[in-house]
Here is the input.
Amino acid sequence: MPNFLAPVWVIARRELAGYFATPVALVFIVIFLAVSGALTFYVGGFLERGQASLDAFFLFHPWLYLLLIPALSMRLWAEERKSGSAELLMTLPLSVSQAVLGKFLAAWAFAGVALALTFPMWLTVNILGDPDNGVIVAGYLGSFAMAGAFLAVGGCMSALTTNQVIAFILGAAVCFLFTMSGVDMVLDLFRAWAPPLIVDSVAGLSFLTHFNALSQGVIGLADVIFFASMIVFWQFATVLAVSRTRGA
Amino acid sequence: MSEMIALSGLTRWFGPLCAVDGISLSVNKGEVLGFLGPNGAGKTTTMRMAAGYLEPSAGRAVIAGHDVATQPLAAKAALGYLPEGAPAYGDMTPEGFLKFVAGVRGLKGEAANTAIARAIARTDLAEVLGRPIDTLSKGFRRRVGLAQAILHDPPVLILDEPTDGLDPNQKHEVRRLIADMAAEKAIIVSTHILEEVEAVCSRAVIIARGRLLADGTAEELLARLPHHNAIRLGLASEDSEPARAALADLPGGGAVEVPAEGDGLRVLPGTAPPGDVMAAVMAALGTAGIRPREVYVERGRLDDVFRRITADPADAA
Here is the structure.
C-alpha cells in the first residue's frame, strides 16, 4: 500500500531531520553513550566480571530508557500542538494514523542510531574475549524493541498534553509502571495474596521480564509478540489521543 | 460544479460555550468571500471546521463536492488552508518546509519543483529561502504560510487573516495575489480590516457571537446604513437655517438633519431615486439663492455597518 506509506515516509524524514536541526540529537546521543558506558563499567562491573558478554551493558538499558526515552518522545505531539503546526499537519491530506506512524518511526530510528553507536562495546568484548555474538545480536534487537515500546508509550503521553514537561513526566511514570511490574519487590506484594495467574499477568506486562529473556539470547515468540503488541496498542492509543483534540 | 465551499448549519460547542451557532454559507468558483467579525466571534473556529481540523458538533462542511467528515482526504487535497497565525515548523527553512508540504501532498520530482518555484515566486520568498523560519519576520512567516496554502494550486482557499502583520506594501501584494487567483478559485478570507473587503472581496459575511448576521456584497451591506445614499451638503454657517427651510418639503426626499459629526446638512434618502433627489436639492438651493461649498452622496463606511451589526445583535436581521 504505497499510498498509505508515502506520506508516512515524508513525515518520518521531516521529523528525523528535526532532531538533527537542533542540538537535541547531539545532547541525547552523548548522554546516552556516556551514561550507558558509565553504568556498564562502574555499576555493572563490566571488567571485574571477567565475562566476554554484554550482560552488564544490557542490564541497565530498561533504567536508562526510563529516563531518556520520554525525553525523546515528549516533543512528538506536545510541541506540535503548542506551536500550532498540528493544525497545519491535520489539514494536510493525510490521516492521523499516518502522522502518528511517521513520527513514531522517526523517533524509533533515532533511538536505533543512538543504540547502534554503542558498537565500541561490542568491539571491546570481541577484542578482549570470545563472546557469543548471537546473544549480543539478540540483546541489541531486544533493546531496540524495548526502546520502541517505551517510545510508543511516551508518544501517546505527548499527545495528551501541550506541555512537554508534563509529557515527559507522564511518559516516565507510565514506563516506570511497565518496568517495575517485573521487579520482585513489586511482585512479592502480589504473591502474598493473589493467585499465580495474576502474579504472572502482572509480571507478563513488564518490559523488564521480556527484555531480560531477549537479552539472554532467547528470542521467544511470546517476547517478540509482547513488544510488537505494546507498540501497536500504544500507537492506536496515540491515534485516539490525537483525534480527541479535534473532538466534537 | 460552481459551488466549491458549502457550509450548512455548522455548530461547535466548547463545553457549555457555543462558539459557532448554525452557520450556513456557500462560495462559488470565482468568488472571494470576506469573513468579518469581532475577535472571538467564531471566525477561526468556523474556518477550522471547514478545513477539517475541528469536528463540528453539528452541521457539515463540503469542499469541492467532498464532505469534510466522510471524505477528509479528498476534501483536504482540494483545499489550501492558511491557519490562524500561519504556523510552520520553525526549525525548517522555507524551502525545506515547502518541499515537505509538497511531499505530503503527493507532489514528486518535476511537478513538486514547479509547484514550489511558482509558490515562491507568487509570495516573493526567494530572498529568505535558506533561513530557518523561526528567524524570519512576521511578514515573511505569513508569506511562507501563504506559499504553503497555494502550493498545489487548489480550487479552494481558506485564508485566516492572510494580511495580519504585513506592512502596507506587503498587504497590497497579498491582495493582488488573491485578486489574481480569484477567477479560477473559491476563496474565503477572514479579516478585521474592512478596507480589505472592498479591495478584494466580491462578497462578505459578518458574524458575531457565532451567528451569521449579514451576507452580501459590500454595496448591499452599505445599504443597511440609514445614511447610505444620503446627500451631504457643506454650507457656510449662516446658510444653514435658510437651507434647512428650503429643503424641508422636497418631493421624493427624506428628512433633513444636522449630522452628528462635521457641519452642514444631510438630506436622508427618500422615496425618489438618489439622482432625482440630488436634482431637487440643487434646484431648491438655487431657488433660495444658497451656494453650498460641497455636495456629495454619502456611501457610508463598512466600519459603520460592522459596528451597527455586531454591537447590538438584537436588532440586526
Residues 133-158 of chain A form the longest helix (26 residues).
